[in-house]
Amino acid sequence: MLRAGFQSAEEFRRLTYIAALMRCFPGRNRAGSGDLKPPPAAVANCAHWLDSELRLIKPKVLILVGQLAIARFLGPGRLEDRVGHRFGDRPVMVPLPHPSGQSRWLNDPANRERLAAALGILGQLQMSLAPALRSRSNNDGSSQKPPRAQRATTKTKRRKA
Questions:
Q1: Which end of the chain is more exposed for a tag (fewer CB within 10 A), N or C?
Q2: Which of 35, 8, 12, 34 minimizes the C-alpha distance to 24?
Q3: CB burial class (10 A; 0-12, 13-18, 19+) of residue 73?
Q4: CB–CB of 26/38 below 8 Å?
Q5: Separation CA 122–CA 1 (nearest Å)
Q6: What is the tens place of the pLDDT at every residue in 138-150?
Q7: Residue in 20, 23, 22, 26 with CA at minimum distance from that of residue 63
Q8: Cα–Cα separations (whole angstroms), residue 103 to 8, 21, 93, 106
């Protein structure tokens, strides 16, 4: 996510909530070279968990990673028609290809351009939606939040000043 404008992997993890479509492991494929594709019934069975999380969190952006996630939120379609575009308003949905080493999708230069466009969209969204979070930093310039007690003390001092 550094290519999308995040300062570090830690910043990305701090600013995002990561959830999976499935809550259970579907098993390995017969060749042992990857995981089984979860059957539609299993995805549907787990859908209420993800839907509940999204209702609670109310995300501004959904990063849809891989065909399963993309199809779950946007319906069936080709990666070539989705990656590099944004969909919806609240939340904005940005499809990305699955990062699996099994996928050959990024071998095509046009698809690498689509990925670059998608990461550019995420960078724009990150800059417009998280500027206040980026500006919260310790005196040493790091982007990590101080401990809760220290934040409360800092807020109290600012109010009195």
A1: C
A2: 35
A3: middle
A4: yes
A5: 9
A6: 444 444 444 444 3
A7: 20
A8: 25, 19, 22, 7
Residue 49, exposed/middle/buried by CB under 10 A (0-12, 13-18, 19+)?
middle
The answer to whether the beta carbons of residues 95 and 74 sit under 8 Å apart is: yes
- Secondary structure (DSSP) of 37-82: PPPHHHHHHHHHHHHHHHHHH--SEEEEESHHHHHHHH-S--HHHH
pTM exceeds 0.90: no
Alpha helices in 75-160 (DSSP H): 79-82, 109-129, 131-135, 148-160
Q: Structure tokens of 125? A: 């969204």
Residue 56, token pair as written in the block:
């609670």
As a whole number of Å, the end-to-end CA separation of the chain is 38
Map out the domains of the chain with their CATH numbers. 2-160 (3.40.470)
Q: What local confidence, expressed as pLDDT, does residue 131 receive?
A: 62
The pLDDT confidence band at residue 115, using thresholds 50, 70 and 90, is very high
Cα four-point dihedral sign 137, 142, 145, 150: negative
Examine the pLDDT at 69 and tell me if it is beyond 50: yes
